Q: What sequence folds into this?
């Protein structure tokens, strides 16, 4: 018999968080998140998103053991920004069993009804820095600590339940070129000769942290129009600085400054830590940090492009070429042979024009699904959009 129970205790939350670590433990392609990050994200005391968000969590049980989980998140300011009351789901994992899948989705659906939501969509987190998008292509490739990995049957059950595509993301990959594309070289030269924009590098983590608030101020503006985006508040920005900027290699964080020295753009990349995090089982202690420190100094590895953000007036200046040229040069110096890009919306043509200058391929595709409460609400939203 399948039983769906809402998480009520600290012990149950521990089971919820650790479920995929056990479920996918021997899977060749699944890569865990850092366990510490998962705990902080779902902790109401530590995640600033809870200032204007509600969340509920459920576990599915069979014969006394957990067989699935799901979270539901209600962002109180979402309707004000996007014009429709929605509930999002995330942290969805379950065994290959229709009763389990539907039981978890029923719990989310019932809460959506109680909230008067017009639709349920996901998988998504509290913001765009959380994992989002169900994997629909690329199951036979190693995953990432920063993205969702799931078995193909997840999508089957979501569609059986009545969910449909709302939006897709694609992930690009390309071999580090022997030299920068000629167009980038020309763009960079033109920027240096014709504009006031210049490349900024960061000497160390301390300097990077000092610039952190400005980096995320630009992030909020640059990503504001993207699907489902909600701005990070002050507490979330502080947490992001602690969580990412204090540990990332400053050599892979680049900025664009204007004539007055103000930061007007940034790019963030990270050397491959996925293999190390998988070896460590997502745990930094007692010995996981050793794997990670080794990975940060490794050669013959790959780089992940995390974020690029530009103030609006900089976006058409070509200044992004300054950063991408530097990234390629650093890859040569560090022996990095391949570059992966985190998911980007399939219709984000401005970014895709950049990648077309390299020998790129789409290696993964992922999807956010949606189910409307009724056909009238679905058509009403499509008409307004």
A:
């Amino acid at each position: 018999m399948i039983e769906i129970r809402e998480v009520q205790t600290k012990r149950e939350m521990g089971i919820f968080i650790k479920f995929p670590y056990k479920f996918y433990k021997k899977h060749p392609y699944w890569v865990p998140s850092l366990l510490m990050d998962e705990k902080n994200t779902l902790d109401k005391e530590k995640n600033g998103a809870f200032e204007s968000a509600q969340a509920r969590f459920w576990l599915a049980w069979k014969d006394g053991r957990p067989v699935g989980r799901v979270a539901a998140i209600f962002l109180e300011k979402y309707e004000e920004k996007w014009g429709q009351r929605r509930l999002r789901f995330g942290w969805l994992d379950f065994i290959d069993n229709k009763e389990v899948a539907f039981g978890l989705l029923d719990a989310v659906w019932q809460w959506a009804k109680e909230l008067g939501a017009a639709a349920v969509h996901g998988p998504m987190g509290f913001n765009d820095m959380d994992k989002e998008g169900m994997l629909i292509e690329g199951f036979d490739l190693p995953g990432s600590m920063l993205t969702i990995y799931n078995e193909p049957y997840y999508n089957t059950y979501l569609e059986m339940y009545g969910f449909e595509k709302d939006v897709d993301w694609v992930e690009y990959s390309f071999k580090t070129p022997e030299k920068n594309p000629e167009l980038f070289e020309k763009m960079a030269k033109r920027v240096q000769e014709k504009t006031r924009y210049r490349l900024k590098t960061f000497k160390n983590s301390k300097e990077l942290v000092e610039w952190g608030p400005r980096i995320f101020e630009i992030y909020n503006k640059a990503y504001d129009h993207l699907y489902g985006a909600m701005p990070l508040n002050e507490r979330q920005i502080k947490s992001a600085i602690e969580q990412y900027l204090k540990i990332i290699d400053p050599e892979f964080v680049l900025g664009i400054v204007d004539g007055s020295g103000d930061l007007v753009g940034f790019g963030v990349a990270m050397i491959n830590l996925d293999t190390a995090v998988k070896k460590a089982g997502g745990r930094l202690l007692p010995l996981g940090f050793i794997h990670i420190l080794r990975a940060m100094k490794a050669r013959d590895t790959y780089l992940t492009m995390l974020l690029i953000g530009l103030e609006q007036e900089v976006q058409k200046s070509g200044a992004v070429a300054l950063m991408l040229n530097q990234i390629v040069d650093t890859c040569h110096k560090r022996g990095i042979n391949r570059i992966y890009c985190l998911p980007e919306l399939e219709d984000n043509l401005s970014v895709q024009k950049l990648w077309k200058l390299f020998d790129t391929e789409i290696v993964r595709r992922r999807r956010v699904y949606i189910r409307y409460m009724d056909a009238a609400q679905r058509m009403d939203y499509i008409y307004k959009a």
Notes: The first helix runs from residue 10 to 23. The mean pLDDT is 93. The longest strand covers residues 360-372. The chain has 13 helices and 14 strands.
